[in-house]
TrEMBL record, chain A:
Source species of the chain: Phaeosphaeria nodorum (strain SN15 / ATCC MYA-4574 / FGSC 10173) (Glume blotch fungus)
Function per UniProt: Plays a central role in 2-thiolation of mcm(5)S(2)U at tRNA wobble positions of tRNA(Lys), tRNA(Glu) and tRNA(Gln). Directly binds tRNAs and probably acts by catalyzing adenylation of tRNAs, an intermediate required for 2-thiolation. It is unclear whether it acts as a sulfurtransferase that transfers sulfur from thiocarboxylated URM1 onto the uridine of tRNAs at wobble position. Prior mcm(5) tRNA modification by the elongator complex is required for 2-thiolation. May also be involved in protein urmylation.
Record keyword Cytoplasm present: yes
Annotated HAMAP family: CTU1
Gene Ontology CC: cytoplasm
Gene3D superfamilies, A to Z: HUPs
Subcellular location, record wording: Cytoplasm
Entry EC number(s): 2.7.7.-
Name assigned to this protein: Cytoplasmic tRNA 2-thiolation protein 1
Gene: NCS6
Length: 437, 382
């Protein structure tokens, strides 16, 4: 069989079978098509405004590296007029995060972007190494996930940035849609399918931790294409998984997504589309048009692409735990049925079913109440409870600590906030220059 | 496939009645033969309270419902339970709350002897058998279905059988063929129910089947239609849909088939179980097959999660005024805001060139557009 020409330019030899639609493209056309599609996503969803300062959540992995590269290219090519900076969170995991941050530093040099690195120890007083010593390997991902969600917003607030972009791709979104169906989590469907989410603000203070937009320019890009793009542009990225979650394996939803993609390439986008459509069918949801117009959907409980994004976010025991809980709910519901059956047995002895003697209609679950967003009493971050989850976890950690060597400076006043911000930037710059040596 | 039978060496008492020896473990509880039968019956009949005997109506005003029978475990079990239920009603009140009309759809491999056996055992109901290609004859606006036939077939006058064959042959993947066949089967059943005066259709879908359908339709891009496809009550076709077995797992139905007296095994024909496992290559596997395998494995260890998926999807609400939305020409579902085709949403990455094709592309929903091949040139010429 002779090699087939590229489906677009019909000149060069086709080297790439495109994962999204199995079209055959040459290297240059694939890169162009990939970038143009991201551009189309950005423009049709109006993600950016001219002059906006954007923080790219950079982990050194393939998604954020490709995101930074594509945004730089598109910013120059189409003159978005954006000020792009890199924002990294250092969880404090030796042998893993310090190596991936070296990758981010190299990326910062290659792309000519400012880089800010914030550590968990700086924000919370604990590194993940210390957390694991305290709580063990099981459950430490909960701490890391909770801390990370807050850290990006607090880092952006320190930099005075109001927009953070993350590298969530179509596979991540589709996986989350399926997971929410399997878990029965309807309210989260709307949040996870929106391309823009934001942290609603109770105060109009521009320096607060709120009012920060989040968007996902790679929302409709396939993971395989991101890898292909990184490969063909020879991008420098880090691919080791988190050393503290070696037991994390491909969850049910992840494996299912990959099988669906094999059967029908468009299935990933089809799931994303279904997720957007279903979000409008959730009772009590705001009438948004596919999440495009609703730019104020709260981001608080959105799942981050955490450490080891190639692995599922479902640990093996999750389904078993949920099964146990649901089985108990079913047992409680069955009690009503059991009472009904017993009473029927007395009335109509021997009859398998009594007619016209229906007692209780059965167990009717109460409708889930809507979350009301407020502020944490301790740190001022967005929270639906009095105290946010990070502070609750932090309190638990601190109780078990023999003595507090490092005090966490909470940003209560504006002046203190600005000073903290300045110090953070200075420390980050020092770290960058040290790395440069 | 049947539920776990308890070991006879270590028999324990039934957890419900505390009297008989348990023969089965259902949802982690040992249960005896009689209580299991009562369990399944109660789950099904509880869903049919609206079909109780209507003493106010005169005997000739009998309500009629349609039961599509595929000779599978679920629909056969449903027929058995309803037959038992009607016999009980008849013996107690000398009348029944409804009359059953059974429809078997012939897709080319139907053995007439199978239907004869069913008819012989449940003699008090109407029976009909229709070939699938009759959907082209029954649908009043068959012009819209005919539009999807390949180019060469549009010009000629050919039989409904040939139309069906050429339509299926023009589809490019196993998933598309399975999807269109399922859609046409549903349309045929609905049209037959309307023309025979039935007010409702009782589908034999179990919890597991509904969960499979939820994720399969999600993966095909039909998330918008899930409230129509999963919930009891109104359907987009001016007829009610009910799923009486929605609270019973598929593995429980398999146990029921074996334990019923006399056994229903002689009436059941499940050809797919062997074929499904044999064809693991991605060439022949469909999205429905994938979801079936997935939920059969989830059902073994986590049955409550299967129930939870169905319960969750049942909470999705049809938006107000949805029935006035334009309909998909193939599956008949109301499309929100008339957003037909696969273009015009955030995930569509193509520019204005395709917009012209999208406008003239007709009226297929997102999911059906993924199955039916694009005929931009031909459609634009009309």
């Amino acid at each position: 069989m002779p090699p087939s020409p590229c489906a677009l330019c019909h000149t060069n030899r086709a080297l790439i079978l495109r994962p999204k639609d199995h079209s055959k493209l040459c290297k240059a056309c694939f890169i162009t098509v990939f970038e143009t599609e991201i551009h189309h996503t950005i423009t049709t969803n109006a993600l950016f405004t001219r002059g906006e300062r954007i923080a790219i959540g950079a982990s050194g992995g393939k998604d954020s590296t490709v995101l930074a590269s594509v945004l730089k290219t598109l910013n120059e090519r189409y003159d978005y007029g954006l000020d792009l900076v890199l924002l990294s969170i250092d969880e404090g995991i030796k042998g893993y995060r310090d190596d991936s941050l070296e990758t981010v530093k190299r990326n910062a040099e290659q792309y000519g972007m400012d880089l800010t690195i914030l550590g968990y120890d700086e924000l919370y007083g604990w590194t993940m190494d210390q957390v694991v010593e305290q709580v063990g390997k099981k459950g430490n991902c909960t701490y890391c996930g909770v801390f990370r969600r807050q850290a990006l917003d607090r880092g952006a607030a320190r930099l005075g940035v109001k927009h953070v972009v993350t590298g969530h791709n179509a596979d991540d979104v589709a996986e989350t849609v399926l997971m929410n169906l399997l878990r029965g989590d309807l309210p989260r469907l709307s949040r996870t399918t929106s391309i823009i989410t934001s942290t609603p603000s109770a105060s109009s203070d521009p320096a607060s931790n709120t009012n920060i937009k989040r968007s996902k320019p790679l929302k409709y890009a396939y993971e395989k294409e991101i890898v292909l793009y990184a490969h063909h542009k020879s991008l420098d990225y880090f691919s080791t998984e988190c050393i503290y979650s070696p037991e994390a394996f491909r969850g049910s939803a992840r494996a299912l997504i990959k099988n669906l993609e094999r059967v029908r390439p468009s299935a990933i986008l089809d799931v994303v589309r279904s997720g957007e459509d279903m979000a409008k069918l959730v009772p009590g949801s705001d009438e948004g048009c596919g999440g495009t117009c609703s730019s104020n959907i709260p981001v608080a409980e959105e799942e981050e692409g955490g450490c080891g994004s190639a692995n599922g976010r479902t640990v093996g025991g999750d389904m078993a735990n949920m099964e146990k809980q649901l089985a108990q709910n079913d047992t409680a519901a069955d009690q009503n049925l059991e009472v009904e059956i017993t009473s029927k047995k007395i009335n109509g002895a021997g009859m398998p079913l009594a007619t016209g003697k229906k007692g209780k209609k059965g167990f009717t679950p109460r409708k889930s109440t809507k979350q009301v967003m407020g502020q944490c009493k301790i740190c001022g971050y967005l929270s639906s409870q009095d105290v946010c989850k990070a502070c609750v976890l932090l309190g638990g950690l601190n109780k078990a600590r023999p003595k507090n060597k490092i005090e966490i400076g909470y940003e209560v006043q504006d002046l203190q906030q600005r000073d903290q911000g300045a110090d953070g930037v200075a420390n980050a710059l020092q770290r960058t220059s040290i790395g440069g040596d | 496939m049947p539920g776990k039978h308890s070991d006879s060496a270590t028999s324990e008492l039934c957890e419900k009645c505390k009297e008989n020896i348990s023969i089965l473990v259902v949802r982690a509880k040992p249960i005896c033969h009689d209580c299991f039968a009562r369990y399944v019956h109660t789950k099904a009949i509880k869903r049919l309270e609206s079909f109780r005997v209507n003493f106010a109506a005169s005997p000739d005003q009998q309500r009629k419902i349609l039961l599509p029978l595929s000779h599978g475990v679920s629909s056969t079990t449903l027929l058995h339970i309803l037959d038992l239920h009607l016999n009980t009603q008849r013996s107690k009140t000398n009348r029944t709350g409804f009359a059953i009309s059974v429809l078997v759809v012939d897709e080319g491999s139907l053995d007439p002897a199978r239907l004869d056996k069913v008819r012989e055992r449940y003699a008090n109901h109407d029976y009909a058998s229709l070939p699938l290609h009759d959907v082209f004859r029954l649908l009043p606006d068959d012009a819209s279905l005919r539009a999807f036939l390949p180019e060469s077939q549009v010009q000629e006058v050919c039989s409904t059988q040939e139309q069906l064959t050429s339509l299926i042959a023009s589809l490019t993947s196993a998933t598309a063929r399975a999807d269109v066949l399922t859609t046409l089967r549903t349309r045929l059943i609905v049209e037959h129910a309307k023309q025979t005066g039935c007010e409702s259709i009782l589908w034999g879908d179990s919890t597991t089947r509904l969960a499979e359908k939820t994720l399969a339709e999600t993966a095909k891009g039909r998330g918008f239609s899930l409230p129509w496809q999963i919930s009891d009550g109104k359907s987009p076709f001016d007829i009610n849909f009910h799923y009486p077995l929605r609270d019973v797992l598929k593995k429980e139905l398999f146990s029921y088939v074996d334990l019923a007296e006399p056994a229903l095994s002689a009436l059941v024909y499940e050809p797919q179980s062997g074929a499904t496992q044999a064809s693991m290559s991605s060439k022949n596997t469909t999205i429905d097959d994938l979801m079936k395998q997935y939920f059969e494995s989830v059902e073994e260890n986590f049955p409550s999660i299967v129930s939870n998926v169905v319960r969750t999807t049942g909470k999705l609400e049809v938006p107000t005024g949805a029935t006035s939305n334009p309909r998909c020409s193939l599956c008949g579902m109301p499309v929100p805001d008339g957003r037909f085709g696969i273009h015009g949403w955030g995930g569509d990455q193509h520019g204005g060139a395709d917009d012209a094709a999208a406008v003239s592309g007709g009226s297929l929903c997102y999911g059906c557009t993924r199955s039916i091949p694009q005929r931009g040139t031909a459609v634009a010429s009309k």
